[in-house]
Amino acid sequence: MINRHISQGWTEIVEGIYNGVIIVDRDGKIIMCNTSGCDLIGMSEKEMLNKHITSIIEDSTLHQVLLDEVTLVNIQQLIQGRVVVANQSPIYKDGRLIGAISVFHEIPELKHTHNLLDQKEKEVEQLKEIIELLYDGVIMIDKQGLITMMNQTYGEFLGVRVEDVIGKHVKKVIENTRMHIVVKTGQSEIGSFMIVKDKSIIVMRTPIWKEGEVVGAIGKVLYTDINELKTLVQRLNVTESMQDFYKPELKKVRGSKYSFDQIIGEHERMKEVKDLALKVATSRSTVLIRGESGTGKELFAHAIHEASNRSDGPFISLNCAAIPDNLLESELFGYEEGAFSGAKKGGKPGKIEQAQGGTLFLDEVGDMPLNMQVKLLRVLQEKEIERIGGSQTNQIDIRLISATNRPLEEMVKNEEFREDLYYRLNVIHITIPPLRERGKDIITTAHLILGQLNNELGKSISGFHPNVEDLFRRYQWSGNVREMQNVIERALHIADNGPEICLEHLPPYLLDHVERHTDVSVSSFSLEEELERAEKAAIIRALKASEGNRTEAAEMLGIHRASLYRKMEKYSLLRHQ
């Protein structure tokens, strides 16, 4: 029974506390209630003894503390029509649960107590320390070094009776103690070795402060068996080794798959885009990635996450266009058990919760329905989320990256996309150029894809026939890199073992393109010259449209202002401005 573990000294401390204190045994039956507690409850201790706590306080959570063996802090309850706040903790003896304690105050009285600190505060603080360290070896002294409290466990370890040592100087009870020194220095001593009764133990000693002055010290035996500590250290080493193993494995599953090293491209526009993405990777700002379908928007999102300080966290992606509208909310926000028909037992976290501490990537965000846009905006503003069918809000810490190939500005004008969400997403925008505008990168990309597919499919195709490379340069690639990957994968299967991919291995629609144009084996003009002509013409049109405003012209062209100056100088356009 817990009754025999409560000494007279404990009873006096509990009785002297201004707040209400009630203690129950492991079955939830009341075995002690101090005078303040009785006054708040409106019953005498005799009337309550041996009765279950819920029969006295209907909405008491002390029985839950016993069942779950958890500490509850600042729990509000209604007692006799008065609102009280309680702190509740389980009580252990030799590692075994033997009861629970609740310290409670009426809310107006709590406010009054905060303003009027007195001698009782010392008793409350002492009780708090004792509850936390309850049935280990514990000793407490005052500033003169006199023992004011020692628990039974420590007394048994020292071979003394607790009542015989109260009031004695600590040096007379524990010969080589340093408790009195801690009182003088005010410095804690954590994890100190000490010899007691021919046993090596590990202890901690902590000063007790009151209004800036040391008024005593409390000591606790951490380990009475050094072998136990060695075992714990070994278990810790094993745990750390397992963590080192599983951490990269977890990252493979939930982390990013690509880095900036895997984004190839020597074209000037691609270099500028990569430089910008790398600069913003370490920030917390939201990023909006623009570009045609298949340009590699998700690849850039992965790379930004990998280069950020969240790289150890999860990378969670969701394609807003691939999920039906009626399922998108549950995918994004999650749901509680019983929220709707077919909901999983125990509920399910949404993509936002899964991205906690990491990055959430919303692809095709322009396809998100308006009602979901409102809810997403609230999450970004409040940084908290509530599951479907739930009532609890949880704080979130995520970095959002979104992508779209849709004209969001026009959609905002047409009220198809919320303007406030647009500005929230568009803090930093990155526009990826289409494949057809990347010059020599087209062939570099093709060879990279060929190498990757050779490895995946077990092929050994060495390269492309010159006619194929020439066609790749001329073709507009409306599907960009994704289309090129599909074309090359099909050609690998048709070509079988090569040695190279030829025109006849390409899909029919590309061969039709060959027939509609001149013989691709002999270029009638330089591709580089044609690209330069087109670039110069585009710059001239942008300068005219912006009436010579170079900043606006650069924005129209999707390049940096410095790049515009270099190109204007290259094409001798500066003197005409």
pLDDT < 50 stretches: 518-525
CATH class label of the largest domain: Alpha Beta
Strand order of the largest sheet: 2-1-5-4-3
* DSSP strand content: 15-25%
User: What's the rounded overall pLDDT mean?
Assistant: 83
Number of helices: 26
The H-level CATH homologous superfamily of the largest domain, spelled out, is P-loop containing nucleotide triphosphate hydrolases
Mass-distribution shape = elongated
Description:
It is built from 26 helices and 21 strands. It is 44% helix and 21% strand. The strands form 6 sheets. The protein has a 5-stranded antiparallel β-sheet. A 5-stranded antiparallel β-sheet has the order 7-6-10-9-8, with helices on both faces. The chain has a 5-stranded parallel β-sheet with strand order 12-15-18-11-19. The protein is an alpha/beta fold.
